[in-house]
Specification:
It contains 4 helices and 22 strands. By secondary structure, the chain is of the alpha+beta class. The protein is rod-shaped and about 170 Å long.
Amino acid sequence: MRKAYVAAGLAVALVAGLLAASRFIGTPVSSLQLAPRDLVRSVVATGRVEAPHRVELGAQMVASVVAVPVAEGQSVRAGEILIQLEADELSAAAREADLAVAQAQARLRQLQEVQRPVSGQAQRQAQATLDNARAQLQRQEDLFRRGYIGQAALDEARKAVALADAQLSAAQRQHDTTLAGGSDEAMATTALAQARAGAEAARARLQHATVTAPVAGTIIKRDVEPGDVVQPGKTLLVLSPSGETQLIVQFDEKNLGLLVVGQPALASADAFPDQRFAAEVISISPGVDVQRGSVEVKLRVPQPPAYLRQNMTVSVDVEVARRPHVLAVPLELVHEAEGRSPWVWVIEGGRTRQQAIQLGLRGGGQVEVTQGLRAGDEVTAGPAREGARVRASGASS
């Protein structure tokens, strides 16, 4: 029994000694020694990958689909065939139109190479006939004055001149129609132009049977199969053009005042969360989505990673503010951080002291201290009483 009392006394003495020692040495606490650092504030939201624009492709006529040589996700070159429609009738119409052009060209050549020289020769013959008739009339008039012929013969000679003159006028008018600017040539030229226009229209209709890629890009949607009968106005393929990649992100409208065009950002696809890539704010919607309480922001991706795909879900972290070389403390160490008089526990001379501070920029769980602390100060979470002796195990911020 005596030994038990002695052991109990020793235990009490040991506890008392430990308590006394703790008061003298101090309670061990974790602390943070402040040093200047860069503080960044960012806002985070989710969105999707999207090209600046998409091209919806379809047919311009009613026809059956012969072939669709592309698949979703396939990259295509500008001008590459995407859909081939049935075009036998259109091909025949194009050949017929080409023949009409050849016929009109032959008609114009015939006018220039045959009819024009022939009409010119006819005009010269008519002129010679008129000259001969006029000479004959002069001889008849001379004979009439001498009394060798009568009035009837003279009248016949005069009629011959009038007839030859009329024939020359007709030959001249006929020849004029074959010259440049003449009616026959104008008609032949017009017929050729009409035939060529018809051929162009026929070739254009034939081209409509082949749907090609207007620009290089990636097929992101295919809604057509061989054998389908397609109608004008229906979207059959959606093409995402190559080039700039954008992120379309919905930010909470409370962050609207923080966002500015040109701000840098880091993004990551949900499928590859550990691989982050750079982006930049290029557009902020002037309106707010009433249903979601959000504002649409577009970001440019200068160097999109190879794994990025259209409509991928992405997380975006936009840097909205930065303070270089400031003092910052973890927000969890600040008391009354949302009130008018925030403060922290500071270790000074081995004891805790309540220190009033003023706060600035917040970001990443840290808050800037604009007044009340200096570089080298140590802050701690407690114990929660003024003047408590502590033993700090400090770490630099």
